[in-house]
Amino acid sequence: MGHLHFVSMDFTKQFQPQPLLAEGFQHKKTFFSLLGVSYYLTKEELASLLDHLFALVPTGSSIVLDYADESLFQEKGFSNRVENMVKMAAAGGESMKSCYAYEDMERMLDQLGLLIYEHLSPAAIQQLYFQNRTDYLRAFETIHYMHIVKR
């Protein structure tokens, strides 16, 4: 547990490396988790965040993130859950700002010198983790997962 560090940041403000540097991982291979965040950032904010994060760490460092696909703002989802999620986020003062086509994510990551190591679409997530469930739980219709690695 000594290698696990939680660092809070406001990703919508100018990136400040000090909180990360204070945790001592500069120039060390690092695994970041950025789950449940990308859709609350603009595309520019996400690209800038990834660019700044990976500037601090060596090749082989990686991140896991989820992102909403381009159907986020049109999809109602099972029992209207996608539509309700978007509405609840806005009502809570945290509007969802971005959704991506896979090709857009791929292009952005390539420009940042990052590789997609693994991509899981909603259909793949459903098959891998929810296929044999007998309850109502299922993969979220618009959410994809990626494991991304610095070249």
Give a quick set of tags describing it.
single chain, 151 residues, alpha+beta, Rossmann fold, four-stranded mixed sheet, 5 helices, 4 strands, 17% strand
Give the CATH architecture.
Answer: 3-Layer(aba) Sandwich
Question: What would the principal axes of the Cα set say about the shape?
Answer: globular
CATH superfamily: Vaccinia Virus protein VP39
**C-alpha Rg (nearest Å):** 16 Å
Individual helix count: 5
- Strand residues, percent: 15-25%
Instruction: Report the order of strands and helices.
Output: HEHEHHEHE
CATH class: Alpha Beta
Distance between the termini: 27 Å
Sheet with most strands: 4 strands, mixed
Q: Could you explain the architecture of this structure?
A:
By secondary structure, the chain is of the alpha+beta class. The protein has a single domain, classed as 3-Layer(aba) Sandwich (Rossmann fold), CATH 3.40.50.150. The chain has five helices and four strands. The chain has helices at residues 18-22, 43-55, 81-91, 102-111, 122-130, and strands at 31-34, 62-68, 114-120, 143-150. It has a four-stranded mixed β-sheet with strand order 1-2-4-3. It starts with 17 loop residues before the first helix and ends with a strand. The model has no long low-confidence stretch (mean pLDDT 92).
